[in-house]
Design goal:
Layout: H1 5-14, H2 19-22, H3 24-40, E1 48-52, H4 58-66, E2 72-77, H5 82-90, E3 97-101, E4 113-119, H6 128-137, E5 139-150, H7 156-162, H8 171-179, E6 182-189, E7 192-196, H9 199-209, H10 221-235, E8 236-237, E9 240-245, E10 247-254
Parallel strand pairs: 1-2, 1-4, 2-3, 4-5
Antiparallel strand pairs: 5-10, 6-10, 7-9, 8-9
Length: 255
């Protein structure tokens, strides 16, 4: 499915109050991305940073802690109200922030950057190759692009039951997307399995993190019951019912 940016903005805005409590995988993915960045470019000391899809500031806070020498931090997100949440979260560092509200695929970028970073976001974009070209133009020659997104097996349980899901890439395909413009310094993928007591708890988790952004129409009670029955039959185990995340990570430099 082609992501509906309007619906994505609405769902994440609605999930703002519950996102961090439920986004345990996203928190671990952000931490792993920064660790991989440190392993791949141990001497990186960025002064000007751009983050795509900052949401409530989870990665923002971790990045500021990892790189205390940041002078200027530009944040971009579809949800304008996240600016206040992020600034409250990072406290005294808020004066370093410039917030760009809107779609990174169409927004003009005012600067060049030492680091462009994004976690759990870029699988939502419409044209990733074109966006990577944009990042290339706005990175300094010795700058770094570091991001995580999700791969083919992500939420495959939902796809198998509903027939709905994003057009995820494989890690090999992701390497191809980056290969023309970037030297890939690190690339890896992982799997995370979460367990929930019931299929309805899975739906509540997706709603609480904003990840239920691929279907516009509300389900009827019958559709919910049919989903629950099918999910329980296919994906039940000793710990409840499972849900799979498939994060992928890239660290690269411009050619």
């Amino acid at each position: 499915m082609i992501p509906d940016k309007r619906l994505i903005r609405l769902r994440f805005e609605q999930a703002a109050a519950t996102y961090e409590q439920e986004a345990t995988v996203q928190a671990r993915v952000a931490t792993r991305l920064l660790n991989l960045l440190r392993e791949a470019v141990p001497d990186l000391r960025p002064a000007d940073v751009l983050e795509i899809g900052c949401c409530t500031g989870l990665l923002t806070e971790k990045t500021l802690s990892r790189f205390p020498g940041i002078d200027h931090f530009t944040l971009c997100d579809l949800v304008a109200s996240f600016e206040q949440r992020v600034c409250r979260r990072i406290g005294i560092h808020a004066d370093k922030i410039t917030f760009l509200a809107g779609d990174i695929e169409t927004l003009p970028l005012p600067d060049r950057y030492d680091l462009v970073i994004s976690s759990s976001t870029l699988h939502w974009v419409h044209d990733l190759p074109a966006l990577c070209g944009k990042f290339h133009r706005h990175l300094y020659p010795e700058g770094v692009l570091a991001f995580s997104l999700y791969g083919k097996e992500n939420l495959h349980e939902i796809r198998e039951v509903t027939g709905m899901g994003l057009a995820y890439r494989t890690l090999a395909q992701l390497r191809t997307v980056l290969g023309e413009r970037f030297h890939i310094l690190a690339a890896e993928e992982a799997r995370e399995t979460l367990w929930y007591p019931t299929p309805l708890a899975v739906l509540q988790h997706l709603r609480a993190t904003g990840v239920n952004s691929i279907g516009q129409q509300a389900w009827t009670r019958r559709q919910v019951m049919d989903f629950a029955a099918s999910y329980q039959e296919r994906f039940a185990g000793d710990q409840g019912v499972r849900l799979t995340y498939h994060p992928m990570f890239i660290v690269a430099r411009p050619r």
